[in-house]
C-alpha cells in the first residue's frame, strides 16, 4: 500500500458511531488518504468491536491504531481507549499523554499532530458530540493551511461539538453526513494535490505537538506559548499559561494538560463542586458529632454549643442549595446528556 497524500482526521463523541458508520460507508478502498478517528470512549471500551462495526460498512481497511504503525492510504485508524492518537513522519503514534479538554483520546491532540505533519494536506472533520473537543483542533488545521469540515448541527444527534466549532473557527464546509463522503473524496483527489493555501507551520504548534509526543512538557516550553494567569490546572493543580496564539482562547499547564476556555470553565466547576461535596460531608459529620455529645454530656449543653449547631445548619443548607442549583444548571445546559 502507498503512503497517503492527505490525512482525514475525524473527531466525534456522543452519537458518533452511527454518524461515523454512515460517513465511512461512502469512502472507497482506493482513497488516497489515511483516515484517523478519535471517538470519545470509556477506558474499558471494546475498540476492536467498534472497528469491526465500521469495517462491516466500509471498503477501507479498518484497525485499532498501534504505536509505530505506518500510515497507509485507504486505511482507517481508530484511537484506542485512554490513549491519544498522533502522527509523525508517516507513522502512527499512540501515547498516554496528559488529558486535553479532559479527554484522552482528544480530537484536538490528533488534529494538531496531523496539521503539523501534513500541513495543507490535512482535512479536519468534526461530527456529533457534546462539549468542545475538536474546536481548537480545527483552528490548528486551518492555521497550517488545511480544510475544516463540520457536520450540520441541525442533523447532528448532539450538536454541541459542531456548534462550538462554527462559533470559533472559519469552517470551510458545513453539511449533512449524506454529502460528506463525496466532498472528502473530492478534497483528496488529484485536483487538490497541491493546495494553493500552503502555509508555513506555526512554531507554537510545533512546540505543542512535541509536548504531546514526549507525553510531558516543561515550564520553559509553556512560557513560549503564552503568559501565566492566576488560575490552576484542574487536573494537576499546576500553574496555567494562557496561550496567546490563534483565535480560540486556550490554556495549558507545563505538564501538558490543555483546555479551551469553555472546557476549563466546565472542569473548574466540576472541581469546585467536588470540593463542596466534601465540605458538606465534613460539616454534616461535625453537626452530628456535636449534637451527639450534647445529648450525652452536660458539658456540651450550653448556649454557645447551640449557637454553633445553628451556624452549621445555616452553612449546610446554603451549600446544599448551591449544589442543587448547580445540578439544575448542568441539566439545562446539556439536556441530551442523559
UniProtKB/TrEMBL annotation:
Domain CheB-type methylesterase as annotated: residue spans: 1-191
Keyword Iron-sulfur: no
Gene3D superfamilies in alphabetical order: Methylesterase CheB, C-terminal domain
A Pfam family per the record: CheB_methylest
Reactions catalysed: [protein]-L-glutamate 5-O-methyl ester + H2O = L-glutamyl-[protein] + methanol + H(+)
InterPro entries: CheB_C, Chemotax_prot-Glu_Me-esterase, Sig_transdc_resp-reg_Me-estase
Keywords: Chemotaxis, Hydrolase
Active site per UniProt: 13, 40, 133
EC number(s) given by UniProt: 3.1.1.61
Top EC class, one word: hydrolase
MF terms in GO: protein-glutamate methylesterase activity
Listed PANTHER family: PROTEIN-GLUTAMATE METHYLESTERASE/PROTEIN-GLUTAMINE GLUTAMINASE, PROTEIN-GLUTAMATE METHYLESTERASE_PROTEIN-GLUTAMINE GLUTAMINASE
Protein name as catalogued: protein-glutamate methylesterase
Organism: Hymenobacter caeli
Amino acid at each position: 500500500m502507498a503512503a497517503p497524500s492527505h490525512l482525514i482526521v475525524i473527531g466525534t463523541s456522543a452519537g458518533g458511531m452511527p454518524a461515523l458508520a454512515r460517513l465511512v460507508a461512502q469512502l472507497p478502498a482506493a482513497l488516497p488518504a489515511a483516515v484517523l478517528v478519535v471517538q470519545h470512549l470509556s477506558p474499558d471500551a471494546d475498540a476492536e468491536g467498534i472497528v469491526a462495526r465500521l469495517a462491516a460498512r466500509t471498503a477501507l481497511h479498518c484497525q485499532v491504531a498501534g504505536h509505530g504503525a505506518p500510515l497507509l492510504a485507504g486505511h482507517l485508524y481508530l484511537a484506542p481507549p485512554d490513549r491519544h492518537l498522533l502522527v509523525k513522519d508517516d507513522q502512527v503514534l499512540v501515547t498516554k499523554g496528559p488529558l486535553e479538554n479532559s479527554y484522552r483520546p482528544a480530537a484536538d491532540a490528533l488534529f494538531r499532530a496531523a496539521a503539523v505533519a501534513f500541513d495543507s494536506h490535512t482535512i479536519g472533520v468534526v461530527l456529533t458530540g457534546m462539549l468542545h473537543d475538536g474546536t481548537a483542533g480545527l483552528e490548528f488545521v486551518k492555521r497550517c493551511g488545511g480544510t475544516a469540515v463540520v457536520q450540520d448541527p441541525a442533523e447532528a444527534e448532539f450538536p454541541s461539538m459542531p456548534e462550538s466549532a462554527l462559533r470559533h473557527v472559519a469552517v470551510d464546509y458545513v453539511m449533512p453526513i449524506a454529502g460528506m463522503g463525496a466532498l472528502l473524496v473530492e478534497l483528496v483527489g488529484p485536483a487538490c494535490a497541491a493546495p494553493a493555501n500552503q502555509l508555513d507551520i506555526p512554531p507554537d504548534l510545533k512546540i505543542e505537538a512535541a509536548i504531546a509526543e514526549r507525553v510531558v512538557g516543561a515550564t520553559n516550553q509553556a512560557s513560549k506559548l503564552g503568559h501565566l494567569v492566576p488560575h490552576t490546572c484542574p487536573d494537576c493543580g499546576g500553574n496555567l499559561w494562557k496561550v496567546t496564539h490563534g483565535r480560540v482562547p486556550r490554556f495549558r499547564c507545563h505538564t501538558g494538560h490543555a483546555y479551551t476556555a469553555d472546557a476549563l470553565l466546565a472542569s473548574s466547576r466540576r472541581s469546585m463542586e467536588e470540593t463542596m461535596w466534601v465540605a458538606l460531608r465534613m460539616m454534616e459529620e461535625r453537626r452530628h458529632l456535636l449534637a451527639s455529645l450534647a445529648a450525652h454530656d452536660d458539658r456540651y449543653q450550653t448556649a454557645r454549643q447551640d449557637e454553633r449547631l445553628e451556624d452549621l445548619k445555616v452553612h449546610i443548607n446554603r451549600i446544599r442549595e448551591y449544589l442543587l442549583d448547580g445540578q439544575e444548571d448542568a441539566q439545562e445546559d446539556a439536556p441530551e446528556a442523559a
